[in-house]
Amino acid sequence: MYPILHEWGGFLIRWTHVVAAIAWIGASFYFMHLDASLRSIAAIPAGKGGEAWEVHGGGFYQVRKYLVAPDRMPDHLIWHKWQSYSTWLSGFALLCWVYYGQADLYLIDPAVRVITPMTGALVGIGALALGWLIYDRLNRSPLANRPPLLAAAVFLTVVAFAYGFQQVFSGRAAMLHTGALIATWMTGNVFFVIMPNQRKAIAELVAGRVPNPDWGKQAKNRSSHNNYLTLPVLFFMLSGHYPMAWSSPYSWGIVGLVVIAGGVVRHFFNVRNAGGGDRWWTWGVAAACVAVAVAISVASNPAARERIGLTAAAPSPEPGPAPTVSLAAARAPAVDDAVMAVIGTRCAMCHAAEPLWPDLGSAPKGVLLDSPEHVARFAPAIRVQAVLTHAMPPNNVTDMQPEERDELARWLAAR
Ligand code: HEC
Asked: What's the predicted TM-score (pTM) here?
């Protein structure tokens, strides 16, 4: 029952999350582009807004921006906030579902640190809250008037958290939490700054007073931060599917490089949309950052180094039991020889630290099935992939027999 619930629940929450995120990021890109496209018109005093014409969906749009607000309250006003809130809420639900709900599988790597699922969840959620407090304080400090320094401080905060997460969580969970941290800042910007400032402006307008222009500026600043952070966040959210990105001990360095690469690419588009020309150098910087990130991932992964001929194949030691025993392993019944024989012949050529299967640089999705301890740790995933579904072995490349799946099912049924 539980594996089926986990599998479908996870998929449905992910579906919701991706749809919400598309709506939010789409709106955010649209408004950044719109802001950059505004041209001054006679009806609006200089520096107080502008107008843009757009064509889409069989008609022309005439859009005007009034800074910080028009002279009178319009009768019908559309707010943009639920795209952001629903993205965060569904993302948080997914984080809990996958990483805290299946902590043994995804969150806790005993080789990094042995913690209980509850400790892991508290550390994760606590870090998201602490991260917001730090980011928000930085924005309200004197640094706010010096954008390059503020950017540097925010950048260092991200890298420090990425490093911290790597000391507690599995590599995969560490990078995902870094994404969740930044995404929390982005929704925090909407919830704690942009929306309240807009509400204050409207209250002043209704009272017949002129709203403070600083409110508009603060909101615009935070919304630009969101724009620059979007691409890195998407990288971190997708990274779970690509172990080369998160399995290096220096993944925190990869995080830093990706923040720079994503930020400069947004900069290219922001400047271009504003008619400021094409800053082609940004693409050079982004490409260099990505190249260094790839180099870090390869240099710190012996199997990958060997595969591209940087080091000679070393005789690998016999895989022994891992030094620490995970919670899943402690709960699972002993993995008997019959199970290990099945896994050894049908799975382990791919799911090993140095896979024998051609074209695999590291264990797919970080799933190691090379020792009884590892097999026990991944028991629920094995059930989903090889018993409940026949997703594994992929296309049954290793010719797994029905009786062998029955063997795994018998072992799992004892759990
Ligand atoms: C030919 C190589 C190969 C073999 C053999 C193989 N796998 Fe995999 N496995 C993969 C790849 C590639 C992925 C990543 C799939 C993806 O990205 O969706 C994967 C992913 C997985 C995952 C993680 C799925 C997820 O979404 O988290 C599990 C668990 C797994 N395999 C178990 C097994 C088991 C059990 C066997 C043996 C019965 C097996 N695999 C045999 C290549 C293999």
From this structure: 0.82
Are residues 175 and 35 located together in one domain of the fold?
Answer: yes
pLDDT tens across 108-130, in order?
A: 888 889 999 999 999 999 999 99
Q: Is 305 part of a structural domain of the chain?
A: no
237: amino acid identity, one letter: M
Q: Which numbered atom of ligand 1 lies nearest the CA of 343?
A: 37
Tell how far the Cα of 392 is from the centroid of ligand 1, in angstroms.
Answer: 5
Ligand 1 interacting residues, C-beta cut-off 6 A = 241, 346-347, 349-351, 357, 364-365, 367, 378, 381-382, 385-386, 392-394, 397-398, 400
- Of the candidates 239, 235, 238, 9, the residue with the CA atom closest to the CA atom of residue 102: 9
Nearest alpha-carbon partner for 381 in 364, 397, 398, 360: 364
Residue pLDDT, tens place only, 335-358: 889 999 999 999 999 999 888 887
408 Cα–ligand 1 center, Å: 15
Secondary structure class of 287 (helix, strand, coil): helix
What is the span of the domain harbouring residue 215?
Answer: 2-70+79-300
